[in-house]
Amino acid sequence: MSRHRIKDVGYEDDDYYSDDGYASPDPEEQEFLQQCTSAVLSQLSAGQPSVTATKEEVQEALWHYYNDIEKSVNYLRGKKEKEAVKQKPKAAGIAVPAFPASFPTAHFSAADFFRDCPWLNVPSHRKAEILIEPLYPRLGLLGGAPENGGKVSKLAALAAARKKKEGEKAPTPAGTPDASSSPKPSHAPSPDPQAPLSLRERLAASGKSTSKLSEGSGLRRLGKSSSSSSSSSSAPKEPQPELKSPEPLPEPVDDSKAESEPQETAPNIRASPSTFASTIVGTAGPTTAEPSHLHSNSADLLKLYGQDAEPFDFAAPSPDDVVLNAQSTAKGFKSNTSKSAGKKGQSDLAGGMKDLSVEEKVTVKSKNLDVLAEYKKSNRKRSANFVVIGHVDAGKSTLMGRLLADQGAIDKRTLDKYRQESEKIGKGSFALAWVLDQGSEERARGVTIDIATNKFETEKTAFTIVDAPGHRDFVPNMIAGASQADFAVLVIDSSVGKFESGLKGQTKEHALLVRSMGTQKIVVAVNKMDAVQWDHSRFEEIEQQISSFLTTAGFQEKNISFVPCSGVLGDNITRRSEDPHASWYSGRTLIEELEDSEPYTHALEKPLRMTIGDVFRGGVQNPLSISGRLDAGSLQVGDQILTMPSGETAMVRSIEVDSDLSDWAVAGQNVVLHIANIDPIHLRSGDVVCRPSSPIPTITTFTTKVLAFEHLMPMQVDVHRGRLHVPARISKLVASLDKASGAAIKKRPKIVAPGTVARIVVEMDHAVPLEAPTRIVLRSGGSTVAAGLLE
Amino acid sequence: MRCIKNRIEHKGSGEVTLCPDEPEDMWHAYNLIRPGDILRASTIRKVTTEQDATGSTRSQRVHLNLVIRVKNLDFDPQSSQLHVSGQIMNETQHTKIGQYHTLDLELNRNFTLEKEAGSDGEGSGWDSIAIESLKDAVDEGGKRRAEAIAVVMQEGLAHICFIGQFQTIMKQKVEMSVPRKRQGGGDHDKGMNKFFKVTLETLLRQMEFNTSVTSGANNEAVRPVLLASPGFVASGFQKYIQAEATTTTPGLKRLLPSLVVVHSASGYTNSLSEVLQSPAVKSLLADTKYARETKLMDDFLEQLRKETNKATYGPREVENAVDQGAVGRGGGVLIVSNRLFRSQDITERKRWVTLVDRVRDVEGGDVRILSSDHESGKRLEGLGGIAALLTFPILDEDLESDAE
Fold first, then answer.
1. How far away is chain B from the Cα of A715, in angstroms, using its nearest Cα?
2. Per-residue pLDDT reduced to its tens digit, B387-400
3. How many domains does chain B have?
4. Window 650-669 of A, Cβ < 8 Å to B
5. What is the CATH number of domain A609-690?
6. Is the ipTM, as predicted for this complex, more than 0.85?
7. Dmax of chain A from CA atoms?
8. How do residues B45-63 score in pLDDT, each as one tens digit?
9. Structural domain that includes position B344
10. Chain A residue with minimum CA distance to B314
C-alpha cells in the first residue's frame, strides 16, 4: 500500500519537474546568471552601505527580478541592512530550534501533545510556535525598490498577500532548521512571476531556478545530492513533525532510507530506528524486512491519534510534505496556471475577435516628433495665404491665372493648350482663368463655382492663392475660401457700369465677409484698367469710393492699398505697365504689394483643429484623403485623429503640406491628410478634425455677438463657418449692444436693424462642432444677414 | 375628405361623420380631433380569450366598431398616418368599457367625431376654429389643386418635399459627399453624376413614378416637380434627367414637361419660401393656400423691417395689441399658427380661440390661421406662433419692462 503511494507521488513529482524544465539548466542561462551575479556582487560591495551577500542569495534575487541587476542590488542591500539590525534575535532563533526549549522533555507524551491535533490538520496556533523565519524575506518578490519608494505594485501586493496566507496555512514543514528550504520557496513563488511570461521565458526561468536550487542545496544541508533524484529524495528530506522533539534524532534515519529505496539489493547498512521513532511509528516498514518488537505497540499508538493507518514508512513523503505539496500544487501552482490559462484564454479571445474584424487596420508608426521644435528649426520660407474676392466677372480668376503664369508656376505648354481649347468653345478670353477654373461646368459657363487653391513662390515668400467665386450663389464657397486666408485681394472691375453694379453686389458683401472673418489687410486690385484706357481719374474715383467703404467696414487705412492693373495683359501685376497711358502710376505692382504682407502667427500651441474642406480619393495608394487648413495646433504622421460630429477616429497615414509630403504640419498650413481606419461615410466637408484627447464640443445652440448686415428677427438662417454650412434659426434676440462699449442698449428687441451689434441666440437642428471663440456668418435667403463671434 | 353626416348643434355640441379619401385628410383629422372628443370608427382588435379549463390562451383578431374617448393623438406626417388612442366607451362582445384601444384611421373608412360643448367646462365643443378646420377639411367640389413636388438641392445635398395645400412634407433627404474640384481631378464630375443618379432614383421612388414606357398610356397627370438650387445644380439635374430619358429610361420622358428649374439660396428646406415665390412657381401654384400664406408672412416681415411699429409678434405683445384695439377693421390682421390650437391643454386652446373670435367678431379684423406644417408657418413659429399686423403703431416699451 505504502509503496504504491510512494510511486504515485514520485511520478507526480517527476512530471512536475520535467514539465517545468527544471531538470535541464541551459548553459547559456547559467553563464548569463554568473555574469549578473558578479555584477551584483560588485555593486553591492561598491555601494554606500557596503554589504556582502552570498552568491546564492544574489542568484536568488536575480532570479526573482528576472536578472534585473539594479533591482536585485536594491533588494539585497535592503535585506542585508535589515538583517544586520536584527542579527541578534535571529541568531538566537537559529541557535535554539524554534520549538519552545522549555518543553518538558521528561513528561513528553506524544499522545498528549497531539491530542487536539488530527493528522494533516494542525491548528494554526500550533504551527505558529514552530515557525522559523525563513532565510530570506518572502515579501521581497517584487519589492526590490526601496521600501519607502511609493506604493507597492499590484503584483507585489498580491504576492505578499499570498505569501502571508501560505505562511499561516502551511503546516510548518520547517520544523527543523534544516528543512527550512523546503521545495516551497522554489515552487510557490515561481509561478507568480511566471504568470505573465511566455513559455520560453518560463522555461528559461525554471532553468535558472533549477541551477540555483542545485547550487543552494549543498549549503542548505538538504541532505540530498541532487534534485533530479526523484520521489525518494524529496520525500524524506522533510522529517515529520513528530521528529521535532527535543531529542536529537539520528540523521541517518532519513538518509539510509532514502538510499535504501533505489537499491534494495545493497547490504543493509543503516542503523535501526531510534527507540523513539520505533515507539511512535513502529517498524521501518516494508523496505526493511527487519522485524520489530515494537510493531504492535506502534499500531496502538497510532490509533491513539485517531488514525488507524498501517505502520508508517519513512520512505513515503511525510504527511506534512504531502499537505505541503498538495497545497503548493493546488494553491500556488495550480491556481496560477489556471489563472495564466484564463488570461491566455482571454487574450486568445480578444485576438480572435480582432481577427474577426473585416477591416484591415492600418498602423502607421508615429515618429514622435516634437512638431513645434521641428517647425521652429525648419526655417521655412515665409508663407502667406490670400483669398481673391470681388464681384462676379471682375476678373479674379484671370488675374490669378496671369499671376501664376508670370511667376512660372504654370508652364507655357499648358497655357497654350488652355488658350486653344477655350477659343474652340468661343471663350478665348477665359484662357487664363482656366488655370484655376478646372471644373468642366466652370469652363463651360465661364464662372468660378468653387474655390481653387494654387501656389507660387517669390524670393521671399511662398504664396497660396485661394481663388473664390464671385457669383452670389456661391458665397458659401467664398466663405470657405476666406476662412483659409491671411489677407485678401479685392478685385474690382473698373470698366464703366461694372464697377457700380459690383459695388452693390458682391464687392461689398465679400469685403464685409472677409473683414468679419478677421482679415486685417486688403489689397485692392483695380482690374481691367486697359478697358478704360488707364484713366487716372477713374482710378481715383474708384479708390476714393472703395477706401471710404472699406474704412467704414473696419479696415484700417494703412492696411488698404490700391493697384491699377490689367489681368488679361498682365500690366502692373508682376511687371510695370508699358502702356504710355499708365505712366501716371508709380506705385508698387501687385506682386510687390503681396510681398509686403507681414508674417502671420497662428495658434500653434492650442489643441488641434482643422475644418475639413474636402473629402476625396487621393489616388490608388491613398483611398481616402481630406484637405483643409489647420486652424490651430499641430499634427504628425501616425497621429490618431477624431472627426466631429461623427466622433470617429482615424489614423493619419501621411501628410501633404502644399502638395509636398511632410512628416508634420502646423496651424496655418493648407494640408492634405491621407487617412486610414475610418469609413468615408463619417467624413463630410465642414466636419472638424481634432485630437481624441481634446475633442471639440458639438452644440445645438449658441449665443453670439453679431454685427447685423440686414434686419434680424427670430428667423431661419444658415450658419457658415468655413466649409461648415448648417440650417439654423435665430431663437432669441437677447439685446442690441453699443458698438463701442458692448453694453446693452435695448433688451429683447423685436428686430435688430442693419449696422447694429446684437447678442442673439441661435438654435440648430443637429449638433455641430463649434466652440468659442470662432467667427461665424449668418446668411438667409441668399444674402449675408450677420457675422459675429461665438460667445 | 367627404362629409357624410353633419349634426352640429348651435351650442357647439354634436357629431360629424367624415370619410377621408386623401392622405392629407389625415392631417385634417389630426387638427380636428382633440383629446376629450368621442371618436367612433371601425377597427381591428386582437382579442385574447383564456380557456377556462387549461389556462391556455387563444388570441384572434376581430373586426369591431368601437367608440373611444380620445386621450392621445399620434400623427406621422411622413406616412400620413393618424393613431388615436383612448378608452373604449361601448361594450361589445369582446371589449369592456374602460379598456384602452388605439384606432388607426384609414382612408375611405368613415369615422364619426363627436364633441361635447362643455357647459361644465369640459371640452370646448365645436368652436369657431374647429368649424373652420372642418370647412377646410371638407372639399366638396374636389376643387383642390394638385400639389407639387420640390427638390431643393445643392452640391451633395437634396431635400425632396411634397408641397400640399395644407402641409409640406419633407419626404426624404439625400446626402452625399461630392469631392470638390481639384487640380487635375475629374472626381467632381463623377461625384455629381452619382449624386444626380441617387437623387433621381429617390425622387422617382417617392413620387411613385412608373418609368416603364407602357404605363404612360393611361395618361395620369404628373405633378409639377420643382428643381431648386443655388448655382447650376438644378439645371445640371434637369440635364441629367433629360440625358437619362433619351438614353436609358424612355419612360422618364413623361416627367420632362413637368420639370421646373427655379433658384434657391441653399439646399435646405429654409429656402422653400424662395422657391414658392419665384414667378415660375407662382403661375403653377397660384391659388394654393401655401402661396397666400407665404405672401402674408412676407408682408408681415416687411412691416417689421420697416420698423413702423405696425407689426408685432409674440403671445403677450399680440394680446396687448388686441387689447388696445390695434387689430381691428382697416388692415388689422391676426396671424396664428394652428399649432396653438393643437395644444393638449384645453384652457390654452380656449385662450387662442377667444382671441381669434374677438378679433374677428368684435374688432372686425382679419384672422389667418397658418399651417404649422408649411414653410411660412415655420417662420411664424420662430416668432412665437402668433403675430399681428396693426392698424396703428404701438410702442411696446412698457412690455419690455415687465418682460425683465
1. 6
2. 888 888 877 655 44
3. 3
4. none
5. 2.40.30.10
6. no
7. 144
8. 888 887 777 778 888 888 8
9. 289-389
10. A750
